[in-house]
């Protein structure tokens, strides 16, 4: 029994964040929008989990829910729990959340210009987090800010620390955001489309930087993106979302080798790739489901090439399959023969 | 194949005004001597990072902004020496598809009005004929003919982009300048629009100038590609040769920077240092020398010219790869 106890302890130590059945709905004048509708996944310490999906699939709302930054109203947490170090973040008071935000869980956003304050120097903004969370004196905090800028590869940190965001380029601003987020050595970094607004050569710089920092600081990264190239580059594990639900979860190699959900397969085959010959692109027909009028049954069935009668009636649950999870009545790579008959 | 469009030494400097008298105190050199040609029936891809001048190139050709100097020959006629009414006639033959399907459609006009406006301007057909033409075109771009009286806000981003394409095609142009037509769309919608553009090219015998920052999209659609950096073309080549064997260090770095959706292909990439310099004060000599891993003294001092290095290939580099 002692052994079992220890093993259990190890498992729970590994799990840094566990989201269970999270539901975040928005109540608007034109109806209820279930942006996140029963989402379950976990992140282990030190790993990179990518959350993938198109616009409106709920990936950003999931990350905002973890930070408890969803505006309430119109948003409301309708159920589920978010366990961070075993404690439910949804039960925390605002003051307790403030002690966690920016300290243990930090976030970087897509738009570095709009998420930095234009009237304060970047040094001040990095130092602010340190003063709030770690009781450091202003002078010391500024020194640490310089050190952080150096860590994220901003050239000439002595001078840059006194500059304002508008004096920096897009790539530099994103580095400053990362320096700010990492100032308190968080255990989890949520990166919401961190490179979408950047040029490819700068994107490559930022991705390299995130990889290096993850190794050096041993933090976990929750990477939100719609770019499967970035996923292939960065992730250990992947969660695919569609219309507020998790449709598939797998290790990154398994997922790219054999997607089980038709939506994942569609995402993988519809992008033009430089490492493949050209030809007509595969297409996911139709458009992303509208949260106001979700289809009955499987939410993906109106766009699915393999949909059958049961898909229009019954919503598939997220089921285990060889250490992976998929929510589909007819996962790919299994009953290929039966599929051809249909 | 004959040349449909030939651009020679295109320059566009935007003045920055300053001082009490608001005189130009500096110039943004958005385009600084760009030359290329596009053949009938092909797709010429123009790729580069933000601020390299690719969008300005498209707009200057249509004279939506006037060039500072240079020439552009469309079927042998110099576009920049045409008077207003002649230029208007040429615009029938050169149309543009814009990036932002939300900003480029008038929200107060129905799809029918948006798509038939070009016909109206050029006095083509009567009302009934125009509506018939619009219905036909809606079908061609994958919308319903019954959508004719709907408004843009009722449509999704992908559907709006289809409307933008229909509007560009209604006059049966010869050249279509596509300025980042898929960058604002979700990936599943991108592939639909790319396929549509391919079908339309075959059906109407169109020539495309395709501007994009995504090299994967450029590879997919183009026959030949021009790579731009800070207002200059640095390399032009047939698409397969460019991707198989880039000759300019910037092209090589761009190719290497693209994340490939395959976790088994995580390679050591060439990560360029620094950012694109400001086009107000471009670096001396070769503009890429500040970021180039192979730069030598010569690169700082003299600017390399575009040199033919093979059939249909040219590169502007002192030490091509």
Structure description:
- The complex is a heterodimer of chains A (342) and B (321).
- Chain A is built from 14 helices and twelve strands.
- By secondary structure, chain A is α/β, with parallel strands linked by helices.
- The C terminus of chain A is likely disordered.
- By secondary structure, chain B is an alpha/beta fold.
- Chain B has two domains: 236 residues, Rossmann fold, CATH 3.40.50; 77 residues, no CATH class.
- In chain B, 31% of the residues lie in helices and 25% in strands.
- Chain B has ten helices and twelve strands.
- In chain B, the strands form two sheets. Chain B has an eight-stranded mixed β-sheet with strand order 6-7-8-3-9-10-12-11, with helices on both faces.
- In chain B, strand 1 and strand 2 form a beta hairpin.
- In chain B, helix 3 crosses helix 4.
Please give the structural blueprint.
The complex is a heterodimer of chains A (342) and B (321).
Chain A: H1 2-14, E1 15-28, E2 31-44, E3 48-52, H2 59-66, E4 75-84, E5 87-88, H3 94-100, E6 105-108, H4 112-115, H5 122-134, H6 138-151, H7 157-160, H8 170-182, E7 188-192, H9 200-217, E8 220-225, H10 228-234, E9 237-242, E10 245-251, H11 252-257, H12 262-270, H13 309-313, E11 319-321, E12 324-326, H14 336-341
Parallel strand pairs in A: 3-8, 3-9, 6-7, 7-8
Antiparallel strand pairs in A: 1-2, 1-4, 4-5, 9-10, 10-12, 11-12
Helix pairs in contact in A: 5-6, 5-8, 6-8
Chain B: E1 3-18, E2 23-39, E3 43-47, H1 54-61, E4 69-74, E5 77-78, H2 84-91, E6 94-97, H3 111-121, H4 127-140, H5 157-169, E7 175-179, H6 187-204, E8 207-212, H7 215-221, E9 224-229, E10 232-238, H8 239-244, H9 249-257, H10 297-301, E11 307-310, E12 313-315
Helix pairs in contact in B: 3-4, 3-5, 4-5, 5-6
